[in-house]
Amino acid sequence: MTPLLSPGRIGSLELPNRLVVAPMTRVSAAATGEATQRMARYYARFSEGGFGLVVTEGIYTDQAFAQGYAHQPGLSDRAQALAWRPVVQAIHAAGGRVFAQLMHAGALSQFNRFRSHTAGPSAVRPLGQQMALYRGEGPYPVPVAMTGADIAEAIAGFRQAARLAVEVAGFDGVEVHGANGYLLDQFLTGHTNTRSDGWGGAIGQRVRLACEVVQGVKQELGTTSPVGVRISQGKVNDFSHRWPEAEAGAATVFSALAQSGADYLHVTEFEAWRPAFADAGASLVHLARRHAPGVTLIANGGLHDPARAASAMDDGANLVALGRGALSNPDWPQRLRDGLAPRAFDPALLSPLGDLKAAECETADTTG
Fold this sequence. Notes:
Blueprint: E1 8-10, E2 13-15, E3 19-21, H1 37-48, E4 53-60, H2 78-93, E5 97-103, E6 119-120, E7 144-145, H3 148-169, E8 173-177, H4 183-188, H5 203-206, H6 208-221, E9 227-232, H7 246-259, E10 264-268, H8 284-291, E11 296-300, H9 306-314, E12 319-322, H10 324-328, H11 332-338
Parallel strand pairs: 3-4, 3-12, 4-5, 5-8, 6-7, 8-9, 9-10, 10-11, 11-12
Antiparallel strand pairs: 1-2
Helix pairs in contact: 1-2, 2-3, 3-6, 7-8
């Protein structure tokens, strides 16, 4: 049996295998942020197809500056948490486990029904253009630089959302979204964080907010529910970004996150097997394993080919997360077990919007 299908574990949580559905923005919640029955069917299909763990799309955490997209789901109040219960129950009924990914969009917000402007670490316009895939248009606005009170409010939002996720919605754990250019990554990145206070400066200070969020969430949940953090170099608006501190920066980031108490690190790159820096050297997964040796690692990025997925485990990953591979193959683990090749990704699933399509909310097809 391939190691990908062997039982796994994150903290005290046992998993039936090492295969994870990566978080993917689907902008299909109610306008007021409640998860829907269509979302329950969509997520349950992955567990029916054999994935051991599902990580949800990014869920906004507060009613201040966290929301990033129209029709994004939230965990900012009890009503939104209750709406997630049927989703969680459907996944559990199919034998899977599910983590809520907690996200604060910060300066990359394209829609926020609670605020008329955006906020980030510094008043620096984000690179690139808003994503039409998620109903955005034109350049990003210049955010307002967050005050100390704004930062404290953001941390409190993560903590409250984590508690609602586990105690009300029934999630098995939570993932802090520290990747892809959103708020925690904005603080980590030098050109979006030009602060001169305790939240800015060298990379060891810029990773502080992510660490404090993880620590705060851990305090809320204790030891019974795993807490992880997703980390990347590239961003949705700055695809080719690399940490200028290179391997020394990676050492600082991964060791700090490990010391914050994270139960796992979810490391994502466009192609996870490539060298993290320059044209040669270790992958980001390998560097995470080197500098966070006792922490569970999830690898994500172009690993839909079974051989690539297996090689990520050879590189130090404990689990492998699939994004687009899972969209086209909600039964990917079953296909691996049966010796069937994965289906090619169908771009129509994310066109013209990245919202749920009817076929994704039907009973899983595990044939052909």
